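Tokens as discussed.
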């Protein structure tokens, strides 16, 4: 599937995997120079990479959010929840395939003992999805 141009206001990734955005209009014309220790620079660089942003973009975003009294979202928790949701989705897909195969065997006259086990596994996975969805709802503003 070929990627077309990104819709307005939506970020896309460049070849480095970092998010890119349309330039500000009018363009930003002021610069801020800050000196950092090696440890401070490494800390900021790691945080920027985690957010898939260039270091300057990350620093500007964080500083402007702080100056405007806008709390930054805790993306690490949301990423954790997303990881759980993706794992649960994969489990549900695999279990669905297994259930379909068991039902097909059942319709062909074969009685499968695995059908009950697959149904219980599906129920556990759906419960996990429900708990995770509830946690996401509680975390959203």
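Sequence:
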């Amino acid at each position: 599937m070929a990627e077309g141009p990104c819709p307005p206001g939506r970020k896309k990734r460049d070849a480095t995997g970092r998010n890119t955005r349309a330039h500000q209009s009018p363009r930003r014309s002021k610069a801020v120079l800050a000196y950092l220790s090696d440890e401070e620079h490494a800390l900021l660089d790691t945080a920027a990479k985690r957010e898939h942003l260039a270091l300057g973009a990350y620093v500007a975003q964080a500083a402007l959010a702080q100056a405007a009294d806008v709390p930054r979202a805790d993306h690490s928790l949301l990423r954790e929840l997303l990881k759980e949701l993706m794992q649960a989705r994969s489990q549900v897909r695999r279990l669905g395939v297994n259930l379909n195969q068991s039902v097909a065997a059942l319709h062909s006259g074969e009685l499968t003992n695995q059908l009950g086990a697959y149904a219980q596994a599906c129920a556990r996975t759906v419960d996990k999805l429900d708990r995770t969805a509830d946690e996401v709802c509680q975390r959203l503003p």
